[in-house]
Amino acid sequence: MMMSSVKLTASSPFSSAFRSRKNNKLPNLQTRSQLSTLPTIQIAKQNLGHSPFFTHKPLHLSSSIVCQAYEADRSRPLEIEIPDEEVAKKLKMGLYFASWWSLNVVFNIYNKKVLNVFPYPWLTSTLSLAAGSLIMLISWATKVAEPPKVNLDFWKALLPVAVAHTIGHVAATVSMSKVAVSFTHIIKSGEPAFSVLVSRFLLGEAFPLPVYLSLLPIIGGCALSAVTELNFNMIGFMGAMISNMAFVFRNIFSKKGMKGMSVSGMNYYACLSILSLLILTPFAIAVEGPKLWAAGWQQALSQIGPNFIWWVAAQSVFYHLYNQVSYMSLDQISPLTFSIGNTMKRISVIVSSIIIFHTPVQPINALGAAIAILGTFLYSQAKQ
Fold first, then answer.
1. What whole-number distance in Å separates Cα of residue 200 and Cα of residue 209?
2. Where are the domains of the chain?
3. Is 0.85 topped by the overall pTM?
């Protein structure tokens, strides 16, 4: 509790008594205190009358007592109850990771269902980007999400990222249209090997020895899985390899071009989807074309019925959602944690697709997948 001494004038009936008490109990105040005068307090006589306890004389406070009280308070430890923010952060990241993995599994399942009856990966990829672009445009227009504040320099920096993202997305979809989902993701787990090789020979970046050693199980596991894959297809295999290379360049361009750009993960991926859609649409029309799409659509409807429309909508929406959550997660966690999460995501997709689509897997093939994924985990550890 703060204390202050009050200098009372002679008009107060208690001035002498208070002065005596002050001199006895606080002898050091008279030599140390520097008195500061506060403004006179005007009292309305018509409301308060002529009370002997009120005066028009100045009121004086001793600043030294305030300082002593502050020193006394500061000598005691502060007991401030701080909420456990670490628990809340862990719960938030757990929710992010659970959403990321589950949304990715759902996307891969519906994507494969669509491609099994509608083998047009270019249109399927276009619809995925179109759904995400539409969702974000509506969110910005209705103020559900805050629109990003970007300029022409932002779009120039984003262009090479969008080109690489478009190639990687289409190549992965082409791969899944030809081979099992599990096989595509086993090959895509070899992306760290491409990352190291491109960074080493094209960018001149050197890595510690453990990073290079971690590539051995990645390359060996992917090769073992490819050789023992029962439904091996060269187009599917090359699609996954091209996707790996494209996403490596996407990451490189993103790191170089987006420095200093303050855009949230959600809005960054939204802008990336919009620009990728503009790039992909004319190529999709040129490669496949509306005539093939119309014929394939009618055939798929005749085989599946109205559920086919739901499959297309689900794979398009869930593709955007899982990518959006992954970029939002990257905003909150370290690259190492993100890499580990990405590795676990591949495991969940591979296992769930094998179970749902009853994909035949030989023990040697499963061993190759396990070795490749283990190598990816060791890479994420050694890279940090």
1. 13
2. 101-383
3. no
